[in-house]
Amino acid sequence: MSQQSSNDRDDAYPARVWDLVSANGPDLATLCRLGGALMPGINGIGLSAGPPTTRQGGMTDARIRFSSDQTSARIESAQESLRDGPCHEAAATRRPVHAADLRDAAWREHWPRFTPAALAAGVRAVFALPLHAGGIRHAGAVDVYRRTPGPLHDTDRNAATALTAAATELLNLERLGVDWSSTFAQARFDDTILAMAAGTPVSTVSGRTGEPLTALPLAGWFDHHTLPQLRRRLHSTGIAYGLPGEHAARFTLAVHEAMVNVVQHGGGFGQLLSWHRGDHLWCEISDHGPGIGTALRAAGGADARPRTGSRRRRPSGLELIQQACTSLEITTDSTGTRIHLGYRFRRRVS
Q: What is the per-residue pLDDT across 139-149, written as a single tens digit (0 to 9) for each?
């Protein structure tokens, strides 16, 4: 029996995750249907998911969200009804679980209800990954199966890890309660236009929604090349939605500081979401880097201490964010960081 480290990721992992999110979001099923193409060594994929959670317990309130075929449906259903199996274990331990051959007697002892049901469905190997990425965790897991025994190859394992992280991000979008469909379509159209301008061959130009660049909600994915463009767009959006010039500049600077932290310390790639609800403008900046550490979660951050011999200290990035926003929440762990910040308008935005 084996468990895999949740930190078994290469340098290209953050970019792969955001590529999957931007190309397939916001629909979870669209992403999951891509699994077969991403993992040629597996026969099927299933996903059971519940709400965000911070406690142990695994599959509490999780329900089946996707099954690629009849066998996957049987596996997911068996785990749901029997309360046993790799998804339960992966979710409870927060670690991937790999059963290379279910005919091994050890697996029958380990999962006495699930293993016979899986073998009866023609499954010999299963690999389950917890929905834990980008600093958030949802009840549930992704599991892939194969009809032949043996370990999961590195290519399939890396693809499964990135797909699970992307699925976690799309589940987070659902939690925010915003319709992201047209936003993702517009973002894909914008990327196509930029690719054409750079001379990259493009087969089709699709996805345009015709919405102005200042429309909310906004979704964008950035690295050090695209960060300035996204910053300018956010500033224009803030102005369009009623932020006074000085306040729009400060709020944009706060978001920019968070995005710079992603580029420098969060794997180099990140996501910006922005939307309004009632009298608030909200932004969420997220990454799939190593986390920022507990010290930076404290007000002022690690850079907040006065420097010896310095008459005037430049505010830290976190201080700038706190000064510009009316609310701030930071969630971080070894799977990434998520900064959720808001600005309260003086008048309600329609």
A: 999 999 999 99
* 249 backbone dihedrals φ, ψ, rounded to 5°: -65, -45
DSSP annotation of 27 reads -
**Of the candidate ranges 116-120, 122-126, 290-294, the one whose mean pLDDT is the lowest:** 290-294
In whole angstroms, what is the distance from residue 70 CA to residue 59 CA?
21
Yes or no: say if 170 and 31 are a contact pair by the CB < 8 Å rule.
Answer: yes
Residue tagged 């006495």 (tokens): 112
Q: How many beta carbons lie within 10 A of that of residue 223, not counting itself?
A: 16
CA atoms within 13 A on the CB side of 242: 14
User: Alpha-carbon distance 250 to 235, whole Å?
Assistant: 9
CATH architecture of 2-171: 2-Layer Sandwich (3.30)
Helix axes 154-176, 13-24, angle to 10 degrees: 50
Q: What is the pTM of this model?
A: 0.86
Planar angle of CA 318, 324, 327, nearest 5 degrees: 80
* CA pair distance 6, 12, nearest whole angstrom: 15
Q: What's the pLDDT band for 338 if we cut at 50, 70, 90?
A: very high
Q: How far is CA 162 from the centre of its chain?
A: 9
Fold that domain 217-344 belongs to in CATH? Heat Shock Protein 90 (3.30.565)
Per domain, the residue ranges of the chain are 2-171, 217-344
Q: Is 246 helix (H, G, I), strand (E, B) or coil?
A: helix
Which pLDDT tens digit goes with each residue over 283-306? 999 999 999 864 344 334 434 343
Close Cβ partners of 331 (under 8 Å, ≥ 6 residues apart): 135, 136, 337, 338, 340
